[in-house]
Design a protein that fits this description.
The protein is of the alpha+beta class. The protein is built from 11 helices and 6 strands. Helix 2 runs antiparallel to helix 5, helix 5 packs antiparallel against helix 6 and helix 10 runs antiparallel to helix 11.
Length: about 475
């Protein structure tokens, strides 16, 4: 009964035991709500509504939506991150295992041969000599059979195991955020490559149109040169323009194929898988009329890399508790119940019963500085991760602010270039009409077409830059991973 009372008392101490070491508190949110980027122009709509979860749907392109959803399930980096989550979840189970008793079974059988010069033989000989009796026959061979069930339970009085579980749980949550960060990156890369693909296809169309126009110009100037109405300088200049336009085509084709290969691999397919589907040109998605950037302070909640850094800090603080608990005694309850016999047929009889129970207290007294060193390591790691968290927040704010102002400025540029394109369209239409009436020559009309194409190329590049800035902005805002 006394032993039972001792066990119950120790059990209650375990349940009410404290957790030594610092308790974790998340870093304070000191990020303002308002963006520091300059106020947008009147014709640029940026609201503080929460960013859309499926932000890629603002481009209204079914193929882009299809590829992003495919990547969420098939991308190999995402699958690798999911495997890491399973590993971290299993590691947490391992960390929590010491909270429960360990029970094991041991069955063994031995055939023992005792040495004639061993301690048992010598002890029996000494005892019989002291008693003046004749030396008995010593058994030199014997069999022994055992069947034991033993249990041990280390009581978590000072919270070492619970702190380890805290650290493992934080590591698990950090691994989940790593997967979310991979999703954000993969979605952004697919969208970026898709925009570059469609932009390059439109650029190729405009370049081919320019080449056709320049070839016609070359023919006209060659005829004028042969009749003396043009000089060699004009002919060489138009040849240079034609060669420059032709030389730009290979780079455009490279971008087209590189983008298709990248999208295919990001969706978990072979590089050539999507060639047939993506090679037919489609127009570049239009810029949205209005975008939602949300509040600046929401970055701390949305961005997976910030959430991951915060969980890493929580794990480091929990590890300080583990290091502090190592300075305190460890208390374990031990017990053994089993059967022991020299003969196998007697092993499972009541007389073969044997048992042991008790407690073990292990107190570190001198460890040569090991415990202090481990504590200092844990504290230094926590300090480093605290600074890493702060830097992650600053980097996130920088990325979002840069993408926001870049988008605003590129949209302004696109609006101005759009006006230039509209003006050139009017001039080209007017020159076409004048050409049909014989008021201007064909060369003047073709040059107005070239000017229109070049202004369209500038507008295309500006709109592409704005779309890429918008992708960077939503990537910097950290959304898109929530449904996955």
């Amino acid at each position: 009964m006394k032993a039972l009372s001792l066990s119950v008392s120790l059990f209650l101490v375990c349940l009410t035991g404290c957790k030594v070491g610092p308790n974790y508190h998340p870093p304070e949110d000191c990020v303002p709500d308002e963006w520091s980027a300059p106020a947008a122009a009147v014709d640029i709509c940026i609201s503080d509504d929460p960013p859309p979860v499926f932000w890629w749907e603002i481009f209204d392109d079914p193929l882009l939506n299809k590829y992003i959803l495919a990547a969420a399930g098939n991308n190999n980096d995402v699958r690798k991150a999911e495997a890491n989550i399973f590993q971290a979840r299993a590691a947490r189970k391992v960390s929590a295992a010491p909270l429960f008793p360990k029970v094991s079974a041991d069955f063994d059988a031995f055939h023992i041969f005792l040495s004639k010069n061993g301690p048992i033989d010598a002890l029996m000989a000494a005892n019989t000599a002291a008693a003046g009796a004749a030396s008995p026959a010593v058994i030199s061979k014997l069999n022994i059979f055992n069947a034991f069930f033993d249990a041990t339970w280390e009581l978590d009085i000072f919270g070492k195991t619970r702190r380890s579980v805290e650290a493992a749980q934080a590591q698990l949550e950090s691994t989940i955020e790593q997967k979310n960060d991979v999703l954000v990156s993969v979605f952004g890369e697919i969208a970026r490559n898709y925009i570059e693909l469609r932009s390059s296809q439109e650029q190729k169309t405009l370049l081919e149109s320019n080449i056709d126009l320049l070839k016609k110009n070359v023919q006209i100037i060659q005829k004028r040169y042969s009749t003396g109405y043009s000089n060699l300088l004009e002919l060489e200049q138009i040849d240079i323009q034609l060669n420059q336009a032709v030389s730009a085509l290979p780079a455009t084709d490279i971008t087209i194929y590189r983008s298709i290969f990248a999208i295919s691999v990001l969706t978990g397919e072979l590089p050539e898988t999507l060639l047939e589907e993506l090679l037919p040109p489609q127009p570049l998605p239009a810029l949205p009329e209005c975008i939602s950037a949300g509040l600046k302070s929401d970055l701390l909640r949305r961005r997976p890399d910030i959430r991951e850094a915060e969980r890493n800090l929580a794990q480091a603080v929990a590890n300080i508790g583990v290091a502090v608990a190592s300075f305190f005694p460890s208390v374990s309850l031990v017990g053994l119940l089993g059967l022991e016999s020299l003969k196998l047929h007697n092993l499972f009889t009541p007389k073969s019963k044997t048992w042991i129970y008790g407690a073990d207290v292990n107190m570190p007294i001198f460890q040569g500085g090991k415990l202090v060193g481990n504590l200092n390591i844990a504290q230094a790691q926590a300090a480093a991760l605290a600074f890493a968290y702060q830097q992650t927040v600053l980097n996130a704010l920088r990325d979002a602010e840069t993408a926001l102002i870049s988008y605003e400025e590129d949209v302004k540029t696109s609006n101005e270039l759009q006006k230039i394109v509209e003006t050139n369209q009017k001039l080209t239409s007017l020159n076409r009409l004048r050409y049909t009436k014989g008021l201007v020559g064909q060369l003047d009309y073709l040059n107005s077409e070239l000017i229109l194409n070049n202004s369209s190329l500038s507008l295309l590049q500006s709109e592409t830059a704005a779309l890429l800035d918008l992708i960077s902005l939503y990537k910097a805002l950290g959304g898109g991973w929530e449904p996955f």
